[in-house]
Amino acid sequence: MMGSREKNYEDLIFPFCDEVGKYEKLDKIGQGTFGEVFKARHKKTKKIVALKKVLMDNEKEGFPITALREIKILQQLKHDNVVKLNEICRTKPTVYNRWHSTFYLVFDFCEHDLAGLLSNYNVKFSLGEIKKVMQQLLEGLFYIHSSKILHRDMKAANVLITKTGTLKLADFGLARAFSQRNGQPNRFTNRVVTLWYRPPELLLGERNYGPPIDLWGAGCIMAEMWTRTPIMQGSTEQHQLNLISQLCGSITPEVWPGVENLPLYNTMELSKIHKRKVKERLKPYVRDPHACDLIDKMLTLDASKRIDADSSLNHDFFWVDPLPCDLGKMLSHHTHSMFEFLATPRRGKQQQQQQPTQSQQSQASHSSQQMSSSQSTGQSQQGGSRRSGHRPSASASVASMSSCPERIF
Ligand SMILES: Nc1ncnc2c1ncn2[C@@H]1O[C@H](COP(=O)(O)OP(=O)(O)OP(=O)(O)O)[C@@H](O)[C@H]1O
Ligand SMILES: [Mg+2]
User: InterPro entries from the entry (predicted)?
Assistant: First the structure.
């Protein structure tokens, strides 16, 4: 017999939070640190959406604050190059889930993510198409930064692309609002941004950071458009700093005044011998000199000198022939969705890729593939669960994939 308390739960009405049962789940398309993502179809309207499950596991105190933050930020943002949050849905509280609803964020569905597209050699971007990808990515960043939001997890898997070629910045799970509090330095956590895309200031413990952290990630993603695999795949913070120094030159007060005051400057090993080689090392992949120049400016060590989204959009790269051109035609040849979760690994050696944490307390990390660095530092490599372990068996969309290089430098 159902007690009156339980009966009351069942009768509770959530006027602004529909039941997720109005959607039918089709495929699992993502497994993030903080929950699963499904492709789903509205049973009546047939509209296709993405459902991102809110992970409640460690929540004794109700709805997770991190998910609330993501929702609040997504509700505030409205731009063609930012993913659209349509609604929040919930499961019905029943005796079977001990009266605990599961909540889902419901997004417009995008057919691909950039990591999935780059994993597939059959997907070939022309220079004009790469310009269109980067232009939309920077328009999105310009918009969120103007709205005083930092993304804090720029990486190819968090960049979605619709079948008609519209790019959407996604995954605002680590995003936060920022403002300059009348000259007072901010004290944000520096445990943000996936390691391979993490800028040097965060690796050195900076807590008073801002929009340039996202431009560093944009630079890594831009280079990846040609290399097809992340350009700096460190296995520890120290290793990541080594890789950055080998590409961008030694981190010294000469090129970066004030770096000596950062909390970890004396803790980390910073070799003094490296020359900056961004253009030289990228040239074999990125033959366009304007592209090399823009990547070089995005990968500036000193955040105060790093190019911002607005100046990037004004860079000659976007204004000389070939001009940015629509992705729709190229994508129309690819009828199956491509997501990082479904893709053939882009890297040979699979290890744990360090994910940022949402809070200092939650040390959740998630597994992803990783290639071995050609310039090993001899540091201990972290072991980790292999993503192939939770990759579904070959679906039609991945069966014909030829995977991309394991290492580039
Ligand atoms: N609206 C969407 N349309 C299509 N696919 C999506 C959508 N939102 C997310 N995905 C897919 O699900 C994956 C995980 O989503 P998201 O990045 O938002 O979750 P997360 O748990 O924060 O992930 P992670 O911890 O891996 O960064 C994305 O990389 C993408 O492949
Ligand atoms: Mg993500």
Answer: CDK, Kinase-like_dom_sf, Prot_kinase_dom, Protein_kinase_ATP_BS, Ser/Thr_kinase_AS
C-alpha distance from residue 281 to each of 205, 231, 328 (Å): 27, 10, 31
Q: Domains (ranges, CATH) in the chain?
A: 10-108 (3.30.200.20), 112-380 (1.10.510.10)
Residue 338 has what DSSP assignment?
B
Catalytic residue (one of 57, 113, 153, 321)? 153
Per-residue pLDDT of the chain (409 residues; tens, 9 = 90+): 455 555 566 666 677 899 999 999 999 999 876 679 999 999 999 999 999 999 876 656 778 888 999 999 999 999 999 999 999 999 887 888 777 888 999 999 999 999 999 999 999 999 999 999 999 999 999 999 999 999 999 999 999 999 999 999 999 999 999 987 777 889 999 889 999 999 999 999 999 999 999 999 999 999 999 999 999 999 999 999 999 999 999 999 999 999 999 999 999 999 999 999 999 999 999 999 999 999 999 999 999 999 999 999 999 999 999 999 999 999 999 989 999 988 866 654 444 456 675 543 333 333 333 333 333 333 333 333 223 322 223 333 332 345 666 666 6
Closest residue by Cα to atom 27, ligand 1, is 32
Q: In what order do the strands lie in the sheet with 167-169?
A: 112-113, 159-161, 167-169
Give the SS3 label for residue 65.
helix
What's the pTM value of the predicted model, to 2 decimals?
A: 0.86
**Which ligand 1 atom is at minimum distance from the Cα of 109?**
3
Q: How far is residue 250 from each of residues 193, 219, 245, measured CA to CA in Å?
A: 22, 18, 5
Q: Is 113 a catalytic residue?
A: no
* Bridge pairing between strands 149-150 and 176-177: antiparallel
Ligand closest to the CA atom of residue 160: 1
The ligand whose atoms approach the alpha carbon of 82 most closely is: 1
Ligand-binding annotation for 53, yes or no, is: no
